[in-house]
Each structure stands twice: as structure tokens, then as C-alpha cells.
Amino acid sequence: MSYTKYKMYPTVSLENREWPNKQIVKAPIWCSVDLRDGNQALPTPMNVNEKIMMFKLLVSLGFKEIEIGFPSASNTEYRFLRTLIEENLIPDDVTVQVLTQSREHLIEKTFEALKGAKKAIVHLYNSTSELQRRVVFNKSKEEIIEIAVNGAKLLNEYKEKYKETDFTFEYSPESFTGTELEYALEICEAVLKVWKPTIDKKAIINLPSTVEMATPNVYADQIEWFCKNMKNRETVILSLHTHNDRGTCTASSELGLLAGADRIEGTLFGNGERTGNLDIVTMGMNIYSQGIDPNLDFSNMSQVIEVYEKCTKMIVHDRHPYAGKLVYAAFSGSHQDAIRKGFLAMKESDSPIWEVPYLPIDPHDVGKEYEEIIRINSQSGKGGTAFILENEFGFILPKEMHEEFGAVVKKNSDDLGKEFSPEEIFELFKSEYLDAKKPYMLKNYEIKSVQNVEREENLVNIKAHIKIENEEITIEGTGNGPIDSFFNALHESKINGCKFISYDQHALERGSTSRAVSYIQVEENGERYFGVGVSENIDTAALNALICAINRGRL
């Protein structure tokens, strides 16, 4: 790897920089560029119907500015814009944005395509970087400024021909990150001098990280420098458009917002040229997670993904922040245990603040369900299996049982080399406990109360019929309750040589007809075993749990 062919990106000389001490306290102005920058990066670009579907999704999410394409460059995009206008598909509070190069025939067709629109942003751009001036265009700084200024003048002229539309103008020095700061400011101010924006009628200056070339702090320094050195800053909406070549465009946009930007352009799930644009889903949800309204609604994330994947033919990654299938799944045993305890603490707390380990937001906020949180494989621990059984199937295992059943799941996952679904975990639980009916199975029983008035004892006598393989026997015993009398009967018949350790019980469902579930732990030859029994009769549940525990000790 010949790293010496590359050079270090220069830093910005910025004294007393202010952005490191600031916080994001409100949402920026959002502009979706899914239908332009995102679309032009697709192997199979969207057709008109798909564009309309995507446009409607973006409107439903709350976007008020949507860049819909490059109508002068493509017949499909021209027809799409005309369809939006002629079929009245643009809500009154939504402004469409169109892109054009600084060339008169393109500008003319752009304004023609916008005829009849109530509001529109016309986005003018030309490349300003030192590399493209030298290699692509072979033009001087002055010649590049002339291109931008001529385009700005043409926008003014064509605006007068379509007075029914409320136009806002935007200018981008494309490849801003490859442009000398002083020169970028010079060309932007030359454009603004033509447009003469006011506080009441602002222009948009967009400073794109067309290619991400440095660390996010350098981009933030560039934005703050620009804000501090621009004339009449109050008449300008400063916009950012970041790409993800270094994998840090979210940080660049967030730090750029701290540095003074007002507006963010980006796409759903970061679709765009090369490594993509800023992902507005991620940045919007980042803002949401800090207790700030992002002014975008991602509460039905599954629907957003469905429409996005249908229109773009792209796939949202399983590990995508906030939206991926696995982002609310915990495979690590320690994580699972912490999440389970976090949910229990939330139930017991009166605090409205979300605090669950490993879950920065409540999955319900984006339409996810809690059963998606814990996934079980060979790396999982006792807390995860207990969480699944409790939240999916209602079995609240005694704490001492977590490790026992967790080991069962872990062994089976290791043997099969796979992840287990909640249903497969419950099948393991049934097989290990509820279906453990060999070598002993309780057929039926009778319980009678035995009063010893002289000793002031209230005892219980039980007569039970037990099946041992293909043989049935009757056992009988007395004790201070059904479990004790059954335990004594098993001892006297030489079936049971166990020591009784613990008994737990709870209702499996709500209501008068709910079933009871019992957990009994016994010890034999220094080893401890749990048994589980379920029945509408609490005594039957307990007796079956005891038989189950003894059977498991015989395995």
C-alpha cells in the first residue's frame, strides 16, 4: 500500500473557535435529495411512478423542502416535475427544489419545467475546487466566478418571466472541501451580490462536502470560518450537503450545525454517490435521542424501509442505526441480562426518562417490538433466555433457574450452529421441562384432609397413581400440604432420594381460568435440578413440577 502518494489535508487557521462548546438545541431545516442525488446514484434509477411514491413518503415524514431532480437533463425528471405540478401533488407547505448548471439552455428548461409551481428553490452550482479548475476545466479563478455570476443573473432574468411562482435561489460551490476557503467565500459573495438577498427574502448558500476529504472537525472549522467572514450573514440560509467518503459525514453535518449552519441536505439511509450522502434518518434520530423534536416522523420505520427498498432496489443494512433488523437485538449474555434488568427497573420507576442499558432509544418509538430485542445463539447468556420466556410466553423463571436453562439453550445452539427464534427457545423449554415425563409420570391423585385434634395438626394425605415406563403403581403419603405429602409418598416408595430445595409459583395468564405454573428444585447426589409443571389446578402444577425435577435428575 503506497500511502506516500497521498498528502495531508490542511487545517483551518481559526482562533477562538466556538463550535466545540455548543450543543444542537433544535432541528435544522431539512432538505431531502433522495430524488436527485440519491436517484442519480442508483444502478436502476426510479421511474415516474416510483418517484411519486418516494415523494409521497418524504412528504408524510415531514420534509418541507424536497429536491426532486434535474429536469433540464432528463425527460423522466422533467415529466415527473410536471406530473407533481399538474396533478397538484405538492402540498402548500412543501417547496420543491431543482438543480441546474450555470448554462442558459439548462436554466431556461428548468424554469419551463417549474411553470405553475407555487413555490420553488432553484439550485445553481458549478465546480470551484482547485483540482477541477486545473484538470477538468482549465480555467482561472476569475473565469469560474464569471460562470457562477452569469448563472445568477440568468436566474434573476427568468424569475421575472414566471411571476406566479415564489422562487428562492440556492448556490453551491461544488467540491467546496477542495476549494480554498477565501476563494469559496469570494465566489459565493459574487453570486449574492447579484441576487441581493434580504432578511425577509433570504438566499441559500450550500457548502457541500462533495468529496469528504478531512476529519469532521476540519469541516466544522471551515463552516465557522465562513459564517464569521461572510458579509450580511443574516440574509443567508447556510446549508450543508455532506458525502460519506471517509465514513464520517454524520459527524461532519452535526459539527457543521454547531459551527453555524442552518440547513441540512441528505437522503434516507444515506443513499448517494460513491459511499453515499448524509443519512437523514440517522441524524434525525440522533437529535430525537437527545430529547429534541427533529421535525421528522420516523415512528413507522418499517414502512419507511418498505417504500425505500421498493423504489430504490437498495437494501437497508441489518446493522443500520435505528432502522436495521438487528439494532435492537442483543446476542451477548451480559447485554441480555442488563437489558432485562433495565426493563424491570423502568416498570418500577415513575421517571418518564428512558434508561435501559444498551438501548439508546425505546424501540417502540420507531415501531419496533420488544421481542426483537433479544436474539439467542451460542454467545447468549441466562438473562436473554429468561427475558424471552417471560416477555413472549409468560414464564417467570426463578433466578436460580436462569443459568440452568441458559446452559440448555447454549448447548443446543452450539450443537446446531444456529441462532434460535423465540418459538424455538420455547420448544426447547417444553422438551426439557414440560414434556419430561419419563421414567415417571403422574396419572391421577386423591387428596384428603387429616385432622389430628390432639396434636392440633392439619395434615394432608395423598394417594397417587404413578406410571413407571409400562407399569403403574400406587403410592401414598402424608404431610403438611399436597407437595410435602407427595414428596413423602415418593420417598416411602423408594422412587425419590432427592432433597427438596425450593418452590415457586405464579399465574401464567390473567383471569379466573388462568393456568398456574410451578417451579420446584431438588438436589440429588450434590446436583440440583429444576422441574416445571403447568395446570389449571395449582396442586397438579406443583406435583407435575416435582415429578419433572426427579425425571431430569435421572437423565
Description:
The protein has 555 residues and is α/β, with parallel strands linked by helices. It has three domains: 288 residues, TIM Barrel; 101 residues, no CATH class; 115 residues, Alpha-isopropylmalate synthase LeuA, regulatory domain (Double Stranded RNA Binding Domain), CATH 3.30.160.270. Helix content is 39%, strand content 20%. It contains 17 helices and 14 strands. The strands form three sheets. An eight-stranded parallel β-barrel has the order 1-2-3-4-5-6-7-8, surrounded by eight helices. A three-stranded antiparallel sheet has the order 9-10-11, covered by helices on one side. Strands 12-13-14 form a three-stranded antiparallel sheet. A hairpin with a 2-residue loop joins strand 10 and strand 11. It is elongated, with a radius of gyration of 34 Å. The mean pLDDT is 93.
At a glance:
The protein is of the alpha/beta class.
* SS strand fraction: 15-25%
What is the number of helices? 17
Number of domains: 3
User: What overall form do the CA principal axes indicate?
Assistant: elongated
